[in-house]
Amino acid sequence: MKVVNTFHPSSSVLDSLRCHLTGKTDTDYLVVANLNRIHISSVQPDGLRHECRFEVWGRVGAIKAVPSENKQCMTILVLTDHPDPELIFLSYQASQSGGLDLIYTKHLSLLERGARFAEFFNNVLVDPTGRLAVVSPYTGKLKIVLITPEGTYDTDFDVSIAELNLLALEFISSEPDLYTLAIMHIDHLKRLQLLSRDISLDEYQLSPTPSPALPSTPLSAKSFPIGDKPPSLVYIPPFIDDDEDFIGGMLVIGGTKILFYDTSSRESQGNRKQKQRRMDKGKDSTVKELAKAKQKEDEREWRKKKARASVDWPWSEITAWCAVGDELGRSFLIGDKYGRLAMLSIGINEGTTLTLVALGETSSATTLTYLTSQVLYVGSHFGDSQLLRINTTPVQSLESPTLPVPSDINTTTSSSLAAKGKMEESSDRSGGCIINGRGSFLSVIESYKNIAPIIDAALVDVDNSGQHAVVTCSGGQNTGSISIVRNGADFKAMANMEGIVDVTNIWPLRANYYDTVDTHVAVSTFKATHILSFDGRNVASHVNPVSKGFITTSPTLVIANVLGRPKAPGQATNSYVDSSLVVQITSRGIALLEYAVELGEYARVGDIWTPAKLSSTNGPGWENREIVAASANGSQFVLALNSGRIVLLNLDDRNCFDCLNWRDLDGSSNYPTEISAISCVPLNPSKKFSMYIVVSFWSSNHIEILSANAASHFASICKTPVLPSLPRSLLLFNFTRSDIPKQTEYNQYLIVGLGDGSVVSYEFKKEELHGQKIFSVGNVPVTLHPCDVEGRRTVFACGSRTSILFWDKERLHHSPLMLNEVSAVSRLNTTVFDSSVILATSTGLVIGSVKNLDKLYIRSIPLGYDNPRRILHVPSLRAYAVGCISITPTRIDKAEYTSSSMQLFDHTTFARLGQFRCDPNEEITALGVVSVTLERSIGTYICAGTYKYVDEVEPSQGRLLVFDAEDGSLLREKITMAVSLEVRGCVYAVGSVNGMIIAAINSSVVVYRPEIDASTQLLALHKITEWNHNYLVTNLVCRGDKILVGDAINSISFLRMVESQIQCLARDYGSLWPVCVEMLDQSSIIGANSDYNLFTFALQETELRKSLERDGSYYIGDMVNKFIPGALTAHDVSVDMPLEPKQLFFTSTGCIGVIVDMGDELSLHMTALQRNMSTYLSQTKGVTHTKFRAPKNAYGRSDAEATSFGFLDGDFLEKFMQFLNDPGPLKSIMDGQGEAERLTISVDRIHRVLERLQSMH
Known about the structure:
With 1257 residues, this protein is mainly beta. Among the domains are: 307-411 and 429-449, Methylamine Dehydrogenase, Chain H, CATH 2.130.10; 487-500 and 725-860, Methylamine Dehydrogenase, Chain H (7 Propeller); 503-721, Methylamine Dehydrogenase, Chain H; 864-1007, Methylamine Dehydrogenase, Chain H, CATH 2.130.10; 1033-1124, Thrombin, subunit H, CATH 2.40.10; 1150-1252, DNA polymerase, domain 1. The protein is 8% helix and 51% strand. The longest helix has 22 residues, at 1160-1181. Residues 900-1217 form the RSE1/DDB1/CPSF1 C-terminal domain. One of its GO terms (molecular function) is nucleic acid binding. Residues 502-849 form the RSE1/DDB1/CPSF1 second beta-propeller domain.
């Protein structure tokens, strides 16, 4: 069974609003809606502060705030999108702790079987009084929702509306308790019309005739072309200082002009009602009179009503607007789809004027929210969301116009208006004014990273370190970008020391044991030891080894500050005290040194201790013994001698080494004779001694934990099973600082670095080892280094790459460090480099700081108006090939000019290396790489598919392009094209099988063989075969000799390449509408369709035929554009928990997810857990997870698929961990609804499974 987990949540912002959520009216809150989450941030003087976040089980379409008489409790309405629309009432209340609590008060289902979705306007409106909400989910029908004075749900009813093609709705606030809707729609003659209708709450209907509040007014289709975003209506209420003839108006935004219409006065409305009654009376007359009356009615309806004021909109399609928070509400911020932002001001005093002021360029806005003090929030789907400040004077780009304006539109500057004193009177005062000066008035306060929409992606390991990164084609409009996504800790370098290479370990040294500031650093290499001194500045210098007593001619095994044991006069025993002593252990022996603080120098104390000195007290057998491994703490020194002997030493009151115990680990116990590693690091950081000694052995590849108690004679406590490789580094480590062994605070682990580049971890609990987990950090022996990072106790595991182990969220994490070839690490705290780390690399030493241990890093390469659509990593070129579409913005009524190109970027620096420009009206639609054997040599080529737009329903022209991808073929100005082949259709996808190029062209799968043409000696493509049994082949996956075909209109086909022919293995004949497919293995398929479902198929084989059987279906609620086999993070390999990440998927809202394969036995338990959790939450909160994840189609949920199958919701399962400390809900979930639903898996095992699942994303 497959488990669906989220690695990076959707980052596209769909809607936002500002409101007061608590009784504190001085605090504003920003509410931001992503695809399935709502974020709430408080507006603070220094920016936004995140307060809370919650998940919505549905596709959020719009959010609205409901004014309430109860200022302590505000309500937010959330409208979810089709195919299962709901209106959700969310109530926020101040908690006792001062935070915000979320309460679901109502889930109102809007689903209607068989109804047609609203095509243009699918939104919710809230009356300014907060007593009424109107929802438009379906064509020809509105949902009217009545709201109580407290802001909660009261009742609802449906009303029919004659205007089927709604473009916009808006409330007209003309009289109390009178609700009038302004309506913009397209009638049956494709004419745009503006009118209004009254809502009758008594009769539960809209008025059958248009309301006189806003008489029917035709709008020019030329001025308001219908694009992706329909026009908007904004009601402007009257104020005291307005002209006497103004009683309110309606602003129409979204075309080449911004129009402002008057609403009718009460006297005018009365006259119209009388005329209507006379007209209705005339309709009762003869047929001839009736026809005449009808003609007059039509003429009156389409009589041109002149706008009170208008102004040209000189930019592209308007995508977002918001009111500026002034008292009159006469200023609005308007943004177009290319991020051009302008402010519209309405003046209704001594005439009506509309003034448009250009402000600057932002991300392409899907939502605008004015916060306070000239601060604006820009939510974007195509670029980073931004927090902007609108300045009163230009702040950047002072030499350029604020925004580009077509030359045929008149503009002026603010200085020109100031010189005139006021706008000049003209014959048409309602024509408006556009102010466009120089320089941008916008400055970015903060940006919020967004990688939506992800159109294509590649999983790469550029430096072959095993640490993968995802490179995505993201953004759009004016913010196209290539985004690099990777997981790991951040390292900020502060100093470099080159020259010391081949480092094996590093230790900091202090003047005294209890000091916190380091004065020296000892660095051991394969051949020598270096001592570096820090002089209080940012300079480190070598210490003279001759006069300072250190052993520098050989490598050091351990060097550390230790405690002294002086005996006070009159005392029988001595205790450990602070000292300036340092112990250095090498293979030759042990040196004891003392630091003179006044001189800043070390001096050796006594002679070097060697194992041979134990012969006099412990008998023969000590001569010629070599120290092969060692470990030390504040009071103990553990030595591993050759032939399997361990020795435990300490210092006596004369600063001489005293042997506490020793033992040969061989003989009757059948121990291996040689020790590979040893450790005596204390589990309790506050203690200066260890109760355990950890030992590993050569050849047997296992580890033993021994008692350090001298009386026990190194008794065995526990041991590991045989490990897959030789243990080279050991650490029994407590990842918390607690001195009390509490279950939730004391986390002891045995960490093992293996010789094959793997790291093994065991939980050490009650002197037993549990839960073996393995992950890899390369292919060279791993060394372990304890180190403090940001106040946390961590362990650095250094191999081919470096990973940091740390404890967080009740489990052990490992996070890669953004550095390669790190051989050793140590903490460092000097007067200059405080709370830092020092690392050894292949070139020298680096001092820096580690931040954000488990942060997802996103780096964006901005491409501006070049929107990337396809990406391909070409290792032979050390580059990315990116197919781009370049857009030239135009005004709304003008056609946009687009061009396409393939660009090459260096895969490390992302410098642009070259590009190939397509022909006019040609677009790159597919990229692939193929290795071809030509004349006994293997060549690598980039294949690109294109189509040519010639204004037709189905593409009939395209090209298959082949570029040389061998290193050295690049020029700075162009890319070498080897073949250009005209094809009859669009090349939607390309692949490669056995050196042949497979192309999906319209409805066909075509196979080409690259060959050298005998006459020209140039590369040519020869068509081998064609398979044409589809409608529209848009997906093509090639693995080995298998070909997976996705038909966007039908379903999927499984093919095989047999010599020069295509053989169909199996097909699915259902109407699946796939948009993305991928192979899980040679007989399993995963895909996503246009209804936001995931599906899986398995190839079944019988004696008669092969068939595709669907074995999984799951509603994900997002459009998946790409599947990639593999995983982004290194994962643990657990023996008792069969979990393995199989696929990454990428969606149009910026979500990156992980598909994890779970074993059959464990899947049964987790399926039961998901069922019980869904039942419990539906009973307590009224929300049903089962219904949400059930597969859906264009008409909603299907009765045939009432629940998902073959998939589990990993994010939902992980919510189980929040009930671990709540016995009531935990018991309800474990017991289920009866004996048949009782879970047979233990809570502890569920916890461990979910912890491991968390580690994979």
